[in-house]
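Q: Give me the 3D complex with magnesium ion.
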Amino acid sequence: RWPECVQIREVGPRDGLQNEPGFVPTAVKLDWIGRLADAGLSYIEVTSFVSPKWIPPLADAEEVAAGLRRREGVTYAALVPNMRGLERALRSGIDEAAVFMSASETHNRRNINKSIGETLPVLREVTAAAKAAGKTVRGYLSTVFGCPYEGAVDTQQVVRLTEALLEMGVREVSLGDTIGIGHPRQVEAVLEELLGRVPPDRLALHFHDTNGLALANTVVALQMGIRTFDASCGGLGGCPYAPGAAGNVATGDLIRMLHAMGVRTGVDEAGLSEASAYILQALARTGGDPGAAAGDCL
Ligand code: HMG
Ligand code: MG
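A: Here is the predicted complex, encoded as structure tokens.
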């Protein structure tokens, strides 16, 4: 019932920094990403090729991609909303494009300024073009467990859109608890529906930890066969277009729980703690709130 190992997708440099009030200097971002790779993380989402007007903290996406101290065996991914973003990502040599949309209309509209119906063809075109350029593509579905504007989200809509993303050719769909309101019983119910249609190795879970339930939710997903989890070093994160969202589950908390359970992650706890302390100190200098994630630097 418990796996021998799980894969962690580190989203700190993207999800973690996109919501920060201050601009973290590019050199600090690059140093942090280097430390994350050195700690053994084999997948790092390093930035977003979105509009710098919408997400100013990641306006240096090109500089981040160009400055990466690449470590062999590490996949460096970035968020891509449209063809303009894909062109930027391809010019920058990113390994994997992550396309994204929401399961609820209002969050989709607030986040990417389109209806769900208008978004699907855009993501289809981006996915096809990324694959034609030899890249892999990951898909995010947000607001799977609830929407900050609409409340409850229909699980059948989640199933339909997950299948639509997979049919486009994304490698895996990351199911986002964007505002961290999902609970273990709900995770079980949503996964029961999905796993009737989609194999577990095509799914990842992306828990934000607003209510402190991310690890409990992770345990349920593990028991149901999910083997890939997103996490953020320092527990940073949040979506500017999802009021009330807290950070992602802290990578340090996640790996400590998994290691204690005898599940391998390939991530070194001490190295991760150092990377976490490094970025929290840097954020303290740029006016962020490192207190929220202090537990990750144990
Ligand atoms: P729009 O304003 O509708 O776009 O934004 P547009 O196509 O009308 O273009 C308007 C302007 O933006 C133009 O520039 C375009 O060139 C420019 P202007 O002529 O005004 O100078 N533009 C771009 N510039 C750079 N890169 C691009 C790009 N595209 C257009 N790629 C858009 C539409 C999607 C661009 C915008 O809404 C946007 O950038 N949204 C991003 C929002 C975002 O990043 N949210 C956070 C990430 S999602 C998340 O956090 C959830 C997740 O973690 C999972 C979970 O927790 O659930 C993934
Ligand atoms: Mg997120």
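A quick observation: Residues 116-132 form the longest helix (17 residues).
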